[in-house]
Amino acid sequence: MGHRTEKDYIISKGLLFQKKKNDKPKIRKGFLTVLIFFIVWTLWSWVPVTERIELELLKNSGTGVRIALITDLHSCYYGKNQNWLIRRIDKEHPDIILLAGDIFDDILKDKNTKLLMEDIVKKYPCYYVTGNHEYWSHRADEMKEYMESIGVHVLAGDCETVTINGSTLDICGVDDPNDLTMEQWTKQIDEAFSKTDESHVRILVSHRPEKVDVYEKYDFDLVVCGHAHAGQIRIPFLNKGVYAPDQGLMAEYVNGTYTLSNGSIMEVSRGLARESTIAPRFFNHPEVVIIELK
Hints:
By secondary structure, this protein is of the alpha/beta class. It contains 7 helices and 15 strands.
């Protein structure tokens, strides 16, 4: 190495200064790229999808039953007169629709929920249970009365038996436990289950997926739930949510099909909430779940 002159020092210092100055646009460009990716992916995650599940649960020679599971609408907007959502449901031609809570919201107005319900109840038998947001609105009784007035079957510790395509189903439902003691809530399940027949397909409609330890005490063939919103930010490949209400971090029961210890199947929908939530959905499309009972 030769001796460095003052001129060499000035040149090298100038190059270093130039490099530092050039680093700032690169940092800004990188940040902008990440921001654009986050915005695009979030918008993409707002696009609703239809998930199709097949379950071998029928106990006789029926030709199959198609169930549409709708949860956690939170009165969110799905096109003029809710046409985006209605067309998605109509395309599937369900035999029945199960509405597993938070169909209304405690902040957003009821308009979008009513537009949806007043359309689909004319075409399909609809069975509804409350979610926690109906109770947070302090209008749960009013909402249930509205549902009953338009022809929706409101289940609160009740069970209704229906025969569809040659198969008999006992459809049970419970209120959200938000305003109930655990004793009152389990009493509702007891009362509903007592009306079932083991030769029928026994279905429980409940808002809360985290109550697995309770559901495992009963011989329901199928339990359908919502509430978790798939953890809002869903972790791909692990099928866990970053955070879900009443489950906390790395929530387990957030999306899809779970087999409980007693053999019951629990189906958890990611729900349809969009603009009602504080945090955006990420890796987490809102969904209509179609359950084919075979």
